[in-house]
Design goal:
eight-stranded mixed beta sheet; 40% helix; 15% strand; globular
């Protein structure tokens, strides 16, 4: 009988891709994540450690091991969803057994065994609703995915007792659903956490990291490479306020948004809208405070 831990992505890798040019070997941390049987996985990683490799292997091993499986890859933006799906396609084309593909499109693939992998941008939670009985959800760059989108995908696991939710990300300040889950001390037994800093990745040299440390601010280095969730210091916008804006579903577009936000009135800012412009200003302010 199938269990949540039946699929072994490491054995899948060894059979299909082991020693290949695109993926000669797996890092120890990747094997640990791939073989973790928890239904809910939180994976916090520094840049360039191989997060996409883990996500693609999980997606392929799940969809090709069992018939009729639906795997969703949810990313913060369309560009990121395309990049992650390209990793899946590259691995699929390199598989030794050449799995039979029924249909391959820009952002999804359907296999002859009835399984499919669909890569979706998560900017609008309404656009990803409608999927059910999902075997695996991979929330790519989860700390950057809107809480509203996170909330929309969780019910897709309700009727499938074998379904899994894997959240993989680099840090994004001290806010959002991933940060709250990561720092929670009473996670249920069905949850598991893994972390890997870039310095712990054996494929990245200490010399390169030293140069990078000299090239960027210490604050940015800690966030990008050392898995540090940093407070938005010197910011006029609190984490709670940012979440109130990010979670709001009826954002209209107007250049008055930034002025309203800086006046400290989130309700007025929400009425004014222009969310994308506002978030660009927020990111710029955080970088300036580094």
């Amino acid at each position: 009988m199938r269990t949540v831990s039946t699929v072994d992505p490491v054995l899948f890798y060894e059979r299909e891709l082991g020693g290949s040019d695109i993926l000669p070997s797996l890092d120890p941390w990747q094997m640990a994540v791939l073989r973790d049987p928890a239904r809910n996985l939180l994976v916090l990683s520094g840049r360039q450690c191989g997060k996409s490799t883990v996500s693609a292997l999980l997606a392929l091993s799940t969809s090709l091991t069992y018939r009729g499986q639906t795997v969703l890859l949810v990313s913060p933006s369309l560009r990121q969803s395309k990049l992650l799906f390209q990793t899946v396609r590259t691995m699929l084309e390199a598989c030794a057994t050449k799995p039979e593909v029924k249909e391959l499109r820009a952002n999804d693939v359907q296999f002859a065994n009835g399984s499919k992998i669909v890569s979706l941008p998560g900017r609008n939670s309404d656009s990803i609703r409608g999927y059910a009985n999902v075997a695996l959800i991979i929330e790519d760059e989860s700390a950057y995915v809107l809480a509203e989108t996170h909330g929309a995908i969780r019910p897709m696991m309700a009727v499938n007792r074998y379904s899994r939710h894997v959240m993989v990300t680099t840090p994004n300040a001290q806010r959002g659903h991933f940060y709250k889950l990561w720092t929670r001390e009473d996670l249920p037994a069905s949850w598991s956490k893994h972390s890997i800093t870039t310095a712990e990745c054996t494929r990245i040299s200490a010399e390169w990291l030293k140069d990078e440390r000299d090239a960027i601010s210490s604050r940015l280095y800690r966030q990008e490479y050392e898995c540090a969730f940093l407070a938005a210091s010197n910011s006029v916008l609190s984490a709670d306020w940012l979440e109130a804006v990010a979670d709001h579903r009826d954002l209209r577009r107007d250049d008055d948004a930034l002025e309203a936000s800086l006046n400290g009135d989130p309700d007025e800012a929400l009425r004014a809208g222009r969310f994308d412009h506002l978030m660009d200003e927020i990111r710029a302010e955080e970088m300036a405070s580094a």
